[in-house]
Write a structure and sequence with these properties.
Layout lengths: L6 E2 L5 E2 L2 H20 L22 H10 L12 H5 L3 H17 L1
Antiparallel strand pairs: 1-2
Amino acid sequence: MNTIASILDDNDEVITDSQDIANSLAKYFYEKSLNNTNNMAEQPDVIGHDTNILNRPYTMQELNSALLSMKNTAGGPDNIPMIFLKHLYEETKTKLLELYNVIWTSH
């Protein structure tokens, strides 16, 4: 089973207690969801429209935008640090985008 052994809080202090980790993550995602609701008005209305736009492959612009919006924090379950992904060569980034699109279109 995968578990999170520790995380950094807002003050860059290490949290190791599992309940404190859960509370910190809940707070983080709650605050992120509040910030995202402000952007909902900017999202296009897809009801009654062609929803294929939701299933189209990702573009390099979308990948770059996503990478730029991420903090340089520790990697996820794959242990790949975000800063590593942000500094990929363009050729490697293209291969990564191709991989993401294979995953996206095959599930």
